Amino acid sequence: MLVGRAAELSRLDALVAAARGGQAQTLCVVGEPGMGKTSLLSVAADHAAASGVAVVRVTAVEPETAVRGAVLDLILRRLRAVGATIDPGATTVPSLLTALLEAASGGPLLVVVDDVQWLDEASLRALLFAARRLLADPVGLLLAGRPEVEQLPGMREVPRLQLAALPEAAALELLASVAPGLSDATAGDVVRSLGAVPLALVEAGRLLTPDELAGRVQLPSPIRVGPAVQERYARGCHTLPSAGRLALT
């Protein structure tokens, strides 16, 4: 359930509409872990597919950051599935642009790349090369990543959409959707404690006991969150230098 992101989704839908009209655009959704980047991309991709746009989706993963062309190869394979003719082993930077144009010759195309911060160097160069050269073409490039993507070479040139925490009203609505029967006072305490981060709210809401939901007992401090939140923030901790990890501890 996507709550409180109507304006952001409208911007993503506008990118898709531009692609349908033959005007290429690129956008990077940037936000801290748990802000709902992946959910936002998923809804935009579903909207695109429902409007007749071919959608190619990939997600970069941290273990493959050092594997040259890992994501580029995956994108090329998936473009082949939507109509592009690609020579086996074609993983040069210009080959992605060629494949995008060929795949889009049969109709508008949306390429979605999540967790851009884990892109290997070759794949990032290929994506940015294509983004700069796609103009009057029915192609949309929709990227998403954590704030550190802005430090990657060339990414500051890419238009971005910054995701912030949800407004309080939207945060309360989201929490109520996963925790029926939640008292107003308890809901407010949870939102204030977790900073209106969507993933944290969803996980915390599902872990509340019936007595906590009804406000009959005091909330635990800190409020419980599930493994998904812990994993996302732990990844960020692991990337810090040793002095930073020590300070955080």
Features:
single chain; 249 residues; alpha/beta; five-stranded parallel beta sheet
Notes on the structure:
- The protein is an alpha/beta fold and 249 residues long.
- The chain has eleven helices and five strands; from the N terminus they run αβαβααβαββαααααα.
- The protein has helices at residues 6-20, 37-50, 70-81, 93-104, 121-133, 168-178, 184-194, 198-207, 210-214, 227-238, 242-248; strands at 25-30, 54-59, 109-114, 139-145, 160-162.
- A five-stranded parallel beta sheet has the order 2-3-4-1-5, sandwiched between helices.
- The relative contact order is 0.16.
- The mean pLDDT is 86.
The unreliable regions are none
Q: Helical region count?
A: 11
Mean of residue pLDDT? Answer: 86
Inertia-based shape: elongated
> Rg, please?
20 Å
The beta-strand count equals 5
Proportion of beta-strand residues: 5-15%
Major sheet details:
5 strands, parallel
Short account of what is shown:
The chain has 249 residues and is α/β, with parallel strands linked by helices. It is 49% helix and 11% strand. Helix 1 packs across helix 2 (37-50), helix 3 packs across helix 5 (121-133) and helix 6 (168-178) runs parallel beside helix 8.
Question: Secondary structure elements and their pairing?
Answer:
Layout: H1 6-20, E1 25-30, H2 37-50, E2 54-59, H3 70-81, H4 93-104, E3 109-114, H5 121-133, E4 139-145, E5 160-162, H6 168-178, H7 184-194, H8 198-207, H9 210-214, H10 227-238, H11 242-248
Parallel strand pairs: 1-4, 1-5, 2-3, 3-4
Helix pairs in contact: 1-2, 3-4, 3-5, 4-5, 6-8
